[in-house]
Every structure is written in structure tokens, then in C-alpha cells.
Amino acid sequence: MKYFIKTFGCQANKSDSERIAGDYQARGYQETDSWKEADEIVINTCSVRERAEDRVKGFLLNIQKYFPQTQSATRPKIILTGCMIHHGAQKLRQDLPLVDEVLPIAEVGFNSPAIRKDKKHAWVPISSGCNSFCTFCIVPYARGRERSRPMVDVVAEVKQLAAEGYDEITLLGQNVNSYGLEKAGIGYRKLLMSREGFALSDIPSNQSAYFPPDGIPPFVTLIRQISAIDGIKKIHFMTSNPWDFWEELIDEIATNQKIDRFVHLPVQSGSDRILSLMNRGYTHADYLSLINRIKAKVKDVRIGTDIIVGFPGETETDFEETVALAKEVGFAVAFSAQYSPRPGTAAYRIYEDNIPAKIKKERWQILEDLINRPNLESRPIIR
Ligand code: SF4
Question: Locate the MTTase N-terminal domain: which residues (predicted)?
């Protein structure tokens, strides 16, 4: 029996697919490079933008053209997992009749070690899900509440990787800084999705979603334990968020030469008004102050970011504040996106997508020319 995994989206999905592959191989399946030869096709989906979902639909269309009979007995079994499952199994099977099963990622298979193609660098998930509820983001609904892997498990996995010859790792999570600090089972999703007159004030504030660290934040302890493993030479982590980028973490980066000097810190907007509508929990000044504290201690640091342009209601003045912030920080790289309303998010429910596509594109281009073009030669490779 052969399996084929098609992965869309971010590094978290790619890392999940490595574990799904491990589960298939533990069950005696072999990987195939061609979906046409597979007995089972897993589509690990992304919902972050409409285009990402369109690509999933395009892939299914290709399968349908190749196997015109829709009966599952005469074609590979198709399993859909990943972020698109937040639409609900019933709706997905209605819209995508070729799909045989819709399964949460944890049910597709995580019981085996990851199967990694790269033999020197490894992605290591440390947490999954998110408690932050940025209004534009589908992750808290698609992946659920934040859950951290036990530190002993993460450290054991990295020790094993080092023994196999890996010398570089990237610790992965939707918000790595809050590793080990989550409150479990708060039921926000139920709250958000059940209310008719849903408003911004119903969304939990980012800062209150975590217990404040008592002593050393667990993420810093984890990094120290991993740094102590012989053979590990370079440590990257992503994604960090500004509201809990602990002072202890800055000190650790400054003094621990195994940690990469590239810090990816999504800002999303430079306008306080838009940041508040996004429920980001910090202001332009807060972000800048954090960057200045990092730069003061980590002399050779380079900062990368994510920015959304054309968020509902973004005025020319709001956008100018983003441009000003980009100039003030001097980002090494920015992943800019034109806002796309995602069904299921708070922003989809409470704001009108009222910025014309032409303006979104112009603003995106301005940031691209300002941040990414001048840095083309020295753009950091995001691990
Ligand atoms: S921190 Fe915000 S943007 Fe990042 S995954 Fe969580 S909700 Fe989404």
C-alpha cells in the first residue's frame, strides 16, 4: 500500500505532514512521489487565505480529472485534514464530494516519529493551537486551544536527532513564547461562535490568555536544555509574538551563541487603531520599544515580520504608520499579505472588507519595495 501527502501552507503543516508520514510508515505503507499511484492521498490544508483554499480545490480537480469515477473503490482514498476542517465535515463533503474522510490532524496520525527528508536540519513542534484570537486569524478555530508538548518529550526528540547527525533545529509553535503557559479548555470557540451580536469586546485579550511566568519562562528553560545537547549547533524558533517576548528570552539570545540571530516577530500593522481592531494587544510604541530592547542586547540581530495591508477600515494614515514603523525598525524581511476575509474568523463576522483590491495591492507593493527589494541579496533564509 502506498501513501501520498500533499501539504499546503506554513511550516507547522509541513512538520505535521512529517508525523503523518511516520504514522503511515509504521502501519507498513510506502511513500510514493506520485499521487496517481497512491492508495491513500492525505491533503494537509491551509485556510489562511482564500487562495490557499482555492489551491486545495484545484488539486482535487486534478485528481477528479485523472480518476473520473468518483466511487472510492476505483481511485485512491482521499483524506482531508489541516486548517480547512474548521468549515465542518458536513460542509466540506458537500462542497468537495471527492473527499472520503475529513479528520482532525491528531486523528490522521501522530503516533510515530516524524519522517524527515532533510538530514541536517529538523523541524520540532513544541506546541500546537493558539489562545490569542487575533481577529483576522483562523488558527484558534482550525487548530484549537494551545497545547504544549511535555518538555521531556521535546528534549528527548532533539537528543535523538543529534544522535542521528542533525545539528540544526527549528522549534515550532503558533506562539513559541507562551510554551508551557497555556490555560486549557476555556471554551472561547463556543463563546465566539454562538453569539449573534458578537462584538470585539467578546474576544479575549491577548495578554490575559496566558499565566504570567513565575521565574524563568518555560520556553527559555527549554532552549537552555536543548542548547546543552551535544551536536546541536544552531537553534531557530518560530513564531514569536510581541506581547510575550520575555526579557529573559532577549537575554538568552544575547548570551547563547547557538540561537540564530534572526528574530521573526510579526507586527501586522503600525497603526494603533488597526492593531486594536486586530486584537493584537500591543501598540506601535510597544512594538518599537521591544525591538529597541532586543537591538540593545543582541547587537547582530536581524528582525523579520509579517504585515497585513488592507485590513478593514485601514486608512491612508493607518498605512503610513505601518510604513513609518517599517522604516524605524529596518526589517530584514517582511511577509506582507493583502487582507482576505476568512469565514469563521472574528474579523469576517464583525468588519466589512471595505478596502478595494487595487489599494491593497498598491500598499503591498510599497512595503515590498521598501523592505524586501533592498534586502534581496541578504534576505535571511527562514528556517
Ligand atoms: S497569535 Fe494571532 S495570528 Fe498567530 S496564530 Fe494566534 S491568533 Fe493567529
Answer: 1-120
